[in-house]
């Protein structure tokens, strides 16, 4: 469903992505681990088109999308959520989801009709609000909801484009243990055919949700395999997991 | 997203009632001032759509209005085209020009977008000023008004023309609301709040900006075609950046991003201009002081200030009254 071939990116002398090749099958849930500065978010930015790789390619559902801009990749089914909330703060939760659903259904550029009143848009808004547990907050403005609920909305907005592949950059970033547990359920309850690539520091969530795990270090893939193997890898303990195991 | 609250409806009703009262009771000079307000109101509505709901602060809307005025004048006086067709042509032409400006400017933001629009506006001003067919500094005269005699309306009569402009303004306001509540308008607001996210959702951002800028340009062109008919004479000064600057002052004075506020701003600005200019030649200074006070008060213009104080209170009182009425009816 999503594949990268020999992706490479440098900023001056700093090599942030080194020859990264990944292959995600349809419905696969892969978690990307790695210490700070490993190049995880930079890799995401190249996948969605916010950054152009120096070399290598990105393929979505068999199509080479490397040269496509962000919006075209999104319309082909690549959606992302951000590590830092990137929402429409002055609008309600419903309007936030509605904007995304309107783009997906083609109502976002229509004149003379209100996109949010369209049945297909309302249907997506309702379904996504159920999926990410936002029904009680639909009419609240983003500025009126808690940080944790905003994280749910961050994922919800990405989901409302009905993507083939959902990229989530630290969905539980900054939320407490209780809410983090809620995120486990939320992610596990998403449709099984949705391909997910998740950057996550919460190890419990990573091992709970992941079918496969990829570990990046200095922009390079140093591990790619099943979660059980990741737990037993001495290399991973050395570069990343040591602090977690000892915690 | 644009919403009408109770206060906005009340303000609209009061504005419409005031305009109608003035249209039916005023003498010639009062009617001329009213028409000036109504045409300026169209221009500032056009500017509020792009600046207040799309974050595209434009300094070329004066040129777009001037372009509409010149297009109408050339079509009717030089090409002999019938006024209704000339008006439609002027609106289409300014809409197309605005779409191109919006498309080119869509990749820039803030001060850079302002400068780009200023450059477009000044290019249009210079072109009109230097091109003989436009009459140069002397401008163009002998511009005729629409002929509505087939329905018994003589637009050469000041009262009829003011009422006609009021009807057009009402239509423009209604159209503006429809645009802002449409999928396109919602996307525009989304782009203003978070352009990066809208792009990541799959929206072609430049196209949304260009489309709305084009629609806004059509409204500005319509205002220009009416301005040409109002004065029956036009000069390059109509395209000057100072006209765009004044329109921006009016929008900020009235309340950016409220639609209703700019209407109040237009009325306040024109009345202040005429009243103060009869007292002092330094009337701009007074308007400047008022603008500084409005900006420094951190209220969103005159209407924003009113709305911040009474908008929610009015809605709450109305909701309380509705609930009490329902209780009484239920008890009965």
UniProtKB/TrEMBL annotation, chain A:
This is Amino acid/amide ABC transporter ATP-binding protein 1, HAAT family. Keywords: ATP-binding, Nucleotide-binding, Transport. SUPFAM superfamilies: P-loop containing nucleoside triphosphate hydrolases. Residues 2-243 form the ABC transporter domain. The keyword Transcription does not apply. InterPro entries: AAA+_ATPase (IPR003593), ABC_AA/LPS_Transport (IPR051120), ABC_transporter-like_ATP-bd (IPR003439), P-loop_NTPase (IPR027417). Transmembrane segments: none annotated. GO terms for cellular component: plasma membrane. One of its GO terms (molecular function) is ATP hydrolysis activity. It comes from Ruegeria marina. It comes from the Bacteria. The keyword S-adenosyl-L-methionine does not apply. SMART domains: AAA (SM00382).
Automatic annotation (TrEMBL), chain B:
It is found in: Cell membrane. Keywords: Cell membrane, Membrane, Transmembrane, Transmembrane helix. The chain crosses the membrane at residues 49-73, 85-104, 110-128, 161-180, 212-235, 247-270, 282-306. Signal peptide: none annotated. GO terms for molecular function: branched-chain amino acid transmembrane transporter activity. InterPro entries: ABC_transp_permease (IPR001851), LivM-like (IPR043428). Pfam families: BPD_transp_2. It comes from the Bacteria. It is a multi-pass membrane protein. One of its GO terms (cellular component) is plasma membrane. This is Amino acid/amide ABC transporter membrane protein 2, HAAT family. It comes from Ruegeria marina. The lineage of its organism: Bacteria, Pseudomonadati, Pseudomonadota, Alphaproteobacteria, Rhodobacterales.
């Amino acid at each position: 469903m999503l594949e990268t071939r020999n992706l490479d990116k440098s900023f001056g002398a700093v090599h942030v992505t080194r020859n990264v090749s990944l292959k995600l099958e349809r419905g696969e849930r892969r978690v990307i681990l790695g210490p700070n500065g490993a190049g995880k978010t930079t890799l995401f930015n190249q996948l969605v088109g916010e950054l152009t790789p120096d070399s290598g390619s990105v393929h979505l559902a068999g199509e080479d999308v490397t040269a496509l801009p962000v919006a075209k990749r999104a319309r082909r089914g690549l959606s992302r959520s951000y590590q830092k909330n990137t929402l429409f703060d002055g609008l309600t939760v419903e309007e936030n989801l509605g904007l995304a659903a309107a783009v997906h259904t083609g109502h976002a550029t229509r004149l003379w009709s209100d996109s949010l009143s369209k049945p297909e848009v309302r249907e997506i808004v309702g379904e996504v609000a159920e999926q990410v547990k936002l029904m009680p907050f639909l009419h609240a403005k983003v500025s009126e909801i808690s940080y944790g609920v905003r994280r749910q909305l961050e994922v919800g907005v990405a989901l409302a484009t009905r993507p083939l592949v959902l990229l989530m950059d630290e969905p539980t970033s900054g939320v407490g243990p209780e809410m983090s547990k809620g995120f486990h359920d939320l992610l596990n309850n998403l449709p099984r055919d949705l391909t997910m690539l998740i950057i996550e520091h919460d190890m419990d969530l990573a091992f709970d949700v992941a079918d496969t795990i990829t570990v990046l270090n200095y922009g390079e893939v140093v591990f790619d395999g099943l979660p059980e193997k990741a737990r037993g890898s001495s290399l991973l303990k050395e570069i990343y997991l040591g602090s977690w195991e000892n915690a | 997203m644009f919403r009408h609250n109770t206060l906005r409806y009340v303000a609209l009703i009061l504005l419409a009632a005031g305009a109608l009262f003035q249209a039916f009771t005023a003498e010639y000079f009062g009617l001329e001032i009213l028409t000036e307000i109504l045409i300026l109101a169209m221009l500032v509505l056009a500017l509020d759509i792009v600046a207040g709901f799309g974050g595209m602060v434009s300094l070329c809307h004066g040129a777009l209005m001037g372009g509409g005025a010149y297009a109408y004048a050339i079509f009717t006086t030089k090409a002999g085209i019938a006024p209704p067709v000339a008006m439609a042509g002027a609106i289409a032409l300014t809409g197309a020009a605005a779409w191109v400006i919006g498309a080119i400017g869509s990749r820039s933001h803030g001060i850079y977008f302002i400068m780009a629009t200023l450059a477009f506006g000044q290019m249009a001003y210079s072109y009109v000023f230097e091109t003989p067919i436009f009459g140069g500094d002397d401008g163009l005269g002998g511009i005729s008004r629409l002929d509505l005699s087939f329905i018994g309306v003589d637009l050469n009569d000041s009262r009829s023309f003011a009422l006609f402009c009021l009807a057009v303004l009402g239509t423009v306001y209604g159209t503006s609301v429809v645009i802002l509540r449409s999928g396109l308008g919602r996307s525009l607001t989304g782009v203003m709040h978070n352009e990066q996210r809208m792009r990541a959702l799959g929206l072609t951002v430049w196209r949304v900006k260009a489309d709305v800028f084009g629609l806004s340009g059509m409204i500005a062109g319509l205002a220009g075609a009416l301005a040409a008919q109002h004065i029956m004479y036009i000069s390059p000064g109509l395209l000057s950046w100072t006209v765009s600057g004044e329109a921006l002052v009016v929008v900020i004075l009235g309340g950016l991003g409220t639609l209703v506020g700019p209407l109040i701003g237009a009325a306040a600005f024109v009345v202040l201009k005429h009243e103060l200019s009869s007292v002092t030649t330094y009337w701009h200074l007074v308007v400047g002081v008022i603008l500084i006070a409005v900006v420094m008060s951190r209220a969103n213009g005159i209407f924003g200030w009113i709305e911040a104080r009474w908008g929610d209170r009015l809605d709450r009182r109305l909701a309380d009254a509705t609930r009490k009425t329902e209780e009484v009816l239920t008890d009965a």
